[in-house]
UniProtKB/TrEMBL annotation, chain B:
GO terms, molecular function: transmembrane transporter activity
Family stated for the protein in its record: Belongs to the binding-protein-dependent transport system permease family. HisMQ subfamily.
SUPFAM superfamilies named in the record: MetI-like
Protein name stated in the entry: Amino acid ABC transporter permease
Compartment(s): Cell inner membrane; Cell membrane
The keyword Transmembrane is annotated on this UniProt entry: yes
Transmembrane segments: 30-49, 103-121, 133-155, 189-208, 228-249, 269-292, 370-391
Membrane topology, as annotated: Multi-pass membrane protein
Residues covered by the ABC transmembrane type-1 domain: 97-388
């Protein structure tokens, strides 16, 4: 009779091996000691960057009708590939859910995440990540059907609220409910598509996530006007790429690509005019385009990396306009500081 | 099973031979090989372990089970015990285990009934009944379970909203928020009645046993049902009456966004339960059919020749023999149902996998999280196996 319990055992052993595998690939990539970057070395040896992106969020990361990944987050993957290979297509995209993105990065399945991920203290420390930059300042909001007649989140007492697990969203939701003495019934579904379906089908009165995520979801509905994003923003969601802790060189590269994109916008360098920037006498411009300063080399890439990136992808503002403006997201807090009163601000590129 | 060792052929021991320290001695060879295999497996495990620990350390990924006492902060939709997001991860995981058990236990019971009914229907002489049963079995077994679960969940979501809820019977509401039914306001008298009912079942069983013993002695069959009704129904009703017969019903009512009051079954639980039951029943039906077919036709005829009534024939002759064939594969089906319940994550039912996954995501401790999931399933599966093995040994034909 013992053979009957054996399949259970085999499964358990299989699961144990998966658990081991989660930690195993780490053996191949010891963190950097001083000069070299194991992640960059691995990417160069492989010839492609493996980038963890969203499973499909309009404006941020979504395959178009030809199957080409497009979006604001995707452009950061492209930018890293341009810096390393001068080729935006040397990227393999791995779609990750809110739930499995962190194991994908920890285990080495992806080199980096460019996937609307909030920088928090515990993710930075006990999950073993680094957050090189904040590419999008966001906050959590609620979306309801216009027909419900709800004007503000405080009217949601007693409501059923759809939320995705493995997010800061679900934790903020419980905090907010407690602080405001609001009772709610959660519906917690893992796949984005299924949560959104549940909300659309009326299983929930409201759907909550980052406001950018709400705008993205609303923009792809056949009649976006039927859904209202409530004015309340209940949290801070600084979104940006994440890399494994311990490889400072790679983190530096990703960080300065973002700052380079912001600096390009500050300097008025765009995909159209950066080709003629060699004639621009401003010292800041000369450093950004790599004619002086040797800054690319310090990051372990070509000195012209920012020219290559901006030529193909545009500066920060152009990336924003291409991907996010069409889905109705405004610059708001992501405008430049101090020129436009936003929070996007780059330390000196020198 | 213990009978096997009692077999006299196995009780005979080979004559003792002195062990020769030589490769030619098969016992020495055996020992050497075993030490080698254990050594290799041991070092692989040690290597994996130390590597993992080292890597976690350099990556600064937290380790250990300390997170279990931290505040979970996760919302859980349904729970058998009281749960607040301020409770610990440990309590959240317990809620997950209970949710898994809630769907597995109810699922196993319902799938057994439905599967048995369909298995018997497939053997029916009625052409239509047997063909419908055969069609059911084929279709259900050919479609992936995940697809079926999503199908049921979509159906649940297709029900009208709470404000337009269907009300098939007074006080019962069907909507995309789930099924709401009136609930009894629970009093100590109800607990007492429940205890009395269980006592009644035990007493009935004891009574039936002594009646059978007496029948063995004097050949007189005795009626059991009057005593059974008195003990199983009468006793609890009496207890409830004595304790003041409390009977207060909590009716569900629409208030604000949702229904309040009454008892509810969530669409997620309902979809998962229906999906698992209908799917597993397809397999159980085949097991039951095979079990019944395995009983030799001669046994039926002999029983009829002895003048046994149809019920007696099934209960005394066919079932005991069929069960020997049915129980082992039935155990696998029960294990499968339990493990398949982990597909719950897809439709938002928060079982142990769902809650452990979220815990793992928030704490980053994948290895600990997966170890917990494994431990839970291993414990549940081994319990089911042990119980079924015990039952199987009990009903095994005693060969004389
Ligand atoms: N910023 C939050 C939420 C990010 C998040 O995962 N949002 C959801 C809803 S917009 C999402 O992108 N889901 C996509 C998926 O899981 O496939 C976090 O980092 O926890």
């Amino acid at each position: 009779m013992h053979q009957i319990s054996r399949p259970g055992f085999l499964r358990a052993i299989g699961a144990a091996m998966i658990a081991a595998a989660v930690a195993m690939p780490a053996a191949a990539q010891q963190p950097a000691a001083g000069g070299s970057s194991p992640t960059m070395d691995a990417i160069r040896a492989r010839g492609t960057l493996i980038c963890g992106v969203n499973t499909g969020l309009a404006g941020f990361a979504q395959p178009d009708s030809q199957g080409v990944w497009r979006g604001f987050d995707v452009d950061y993957c492209r930018a890293v590939a341009i810096a390393l290979f001068n080729d935006p297509d040397k990227v393999r995209y791995v779609p990750t859910t809110a739930q499995n993105r962190f194991t994908a990065l920890q285990s080495g399945e992806v080199d980096m995440l460019a996937r609307n991920t909030t920088w928090t203290l515990s993710r930075d420390t006990s999950l073993g990540f680094d957050f090189p930059a904040i590419t999008f300042y966001d906050g959590q909001g609620f979306m309801v059907k216009a027909s419900l007649g709800v004007r503000s989140a405080s009217e949601l007492n007693g409501a059923t609220i759809c939320v995705q697990p493995g997010t800061t969203t679900e934790q903020n939701l419980t905090d907010w409910a407690r602080a405001n003495r609001i009772q709610f019934q959660p519906v917690v579904i893992e796949r984005l598509e299924e949560v959104v379906n549940a909300y659309l089908a009326g299983r929930c009165d409201a759907y909550t996530t980052d406001v950018s995520g709400l705008a993205a979801t609303r923009s792809v509905q056949p009649r976006p006007a039927e859904h209202v994003i409530l004015p309340d923003v209940i949290s801070k969601e600084p979104l940006g790429p994440a890399v494994r802790h311990g490889d400072q060189r790679f983190a530096d590269l990703v960080r300065w690509i973002h700052f380079g994109l912001v600096t390009a916008e500050e300097l008025g360098l765009t995909s159209q005019n950066i080709g003629q920037a060699a004639g621009d006498a401003r010292p800041d411009v000369q450093r950004l385009i790599g004619r002086t300063g040797d800054l690319g080399r310090m990051l372990g890439v070509d000195n012209a990396f920012m020219v290559n990136i901006v030529t193909r992808l545009g500066n920060y503002g152009q990336m924003f306009e291409r991907s996010l403006t069409p889905i109705g997201i405004q610059r708001g807090p992501n405008a430049l500081w101090p020129a436009a009163g936003g929070l996007q601000y780059a330390p000196p590129f020198r | 099973m213990s009978d096997a060792t009692a077999d006299p052929r196995f009780r005979r021991k080979p004559p003792k031979r002195p062990i020769r320290l030589s490769w030619a001695d098969e016992r020495i060879r055996g020992i050497v090989w075993q030490i080698l295999v254990v050594g290799i497996i041991g070092s692989i495990i040690w290597w994996l372990w130390s590597n993992t620990v080292h890597n976690l350390e350099v990556r600064r990924i937290a380790t250990g089970f300390g997170f279990l006492n931290r505040e979970a902060g996760l919302p859980i939709a349904e729970s058998l015990i009281s749960y607040e997001p301020t409770d610990t991860y440990f309590r959240a995981l317990v809620v997950g285990v209970l949710n898994t058990l809630k769907v597995a236990v109810v699922g196993i019971v319902l799938a057994t009934f439905l599967g048995t009914a369909i298995g018997i229907a497939r053997l029916s002489k009625n052409f239509l009944v047997s063909k419908i049963a055969a069609f059911y079995v084929e279709v259900i077994r050919d479609l992936p379970l995940l697809l079926q679960l999503l199908f049921w969940y979509t159906i649940m979501q297709g029900l009208p909203g709470p404000r337009q809820a269907m009300q098939p019977i007074e006080g019962v509401f069907l909507s995309n928020r789930g099924f709401k039914v009136p609930a009894l306001v629970w009093e100590p008298a109800h607990t007492a009645a429940l205890v009395a009912c269980i006592a009644g079942i035990v007493l009935t069983w004891l009574y039936a046993r002594s009646a059978r013993a007496k029948q063995m002695a004097d050949g007189q069959p005795r009626k059991i049902w009057p005593a059974a009704i008195a003990l199983i129904l009468g006793l609890p009703v009496l207890t409830w009456q004595v304790m003041g017969a409390p009977w207060q019903v909590d009716w569900p009512a629409l208030r604000g966004f949702n229904f309040r009051g009454g008892m509810s079954i969530s669409p997620e639980y309902a979809a998962l339960l229906i999906g698992l039951v209908t799917y597993t029943a397809g397999f159980i039906a085949e097991v039951v059919r095979a079990g019944i077919l395995s009983v030799n036709l001669g046994q039926w005829e002999a029983a009829q020749a002895l003048g046994l009534r149809h019920g007696q024939l099934l209960r005394l002759i066919v079932l005991p023999q069929a069960l020997r064939v049915i129980i082992p594969p039935m155990t696998s089906n029960y294990l499968n149902l339990t493990k398949n319940s982990s597909l719950a994550v897809a439709i938002g039912y928060q079982d142990i996998v769902s809650i452990a996954n979220t815990t793992l995501n928030q704490t980053g401790q994948a290895i600990e999280g997966i170890a917990i999931i494994m431990l839970v399933y291993l414990t549940i599966s081994l319990s089911i196996s042990l119980f079924m093995n015990w039952y199987n040994a009990k009903i095994a034909l005693v060969e004389r």
